[in-house]
Every structure is written in structure tokens, then in C-alpha cells.
Specification:
single chain; about 60 residues; mainly alpha; 2 helices
Length: about 60
């Protein structure tokens, strides 16, 4: 069932993770340099606030 042109699942996941890591690094660099549009910066802050809120609830449980 596996042909020569099929990428193994592990390889595909590793490539996807690497691409996501590169995109996050670019976003973080742009954010640190103040190059993100205001609406993107606000969305990042909102998401970070939500993550902290969830982490606080998990720690309290």
C-alpha cells in the first residue's frame, strides 16, 4: 500500500512541526520589532490572556 511517492506519517508530522516553528519564530521576531498590525497584536494578547486563564484554572483544580 505504501508507494515510493508516499511520505511516512512521522516525516510529514516532523515537517509540519518544523514549518509551524519557523512561522512562530517569524511572528515573534516581527512582534518584538513592532511590525505586527495592531489587530494582530491585539489578537495575540487576547489569546495569551485566554491561555493564562486556562492555566490558572488547571492549577487551581
Amino acid at each position: 500500500m505504501t508507494g515510493t511517492d508516499v511520505i511516512p506519517r512521522e516525516q510529514a508530522l516532523a515537517a509540519a512541526r518544523a514549518a509551524l516553528d519557523r512561522a512562530r519564530a517569524r511572528r515573534d521576531a516581527d512582534r518584538a520589532a513592532g511590525r505586527l498590525p495592531l489587530e494582530v497584536e491585539l489578537a495575540c494578547r487576547r489569546l495569551e490572556r485566554q491561555q493564562r486563564h486556562r492555566a490558572d484554572h488547571r492549577a487551581a483544580a
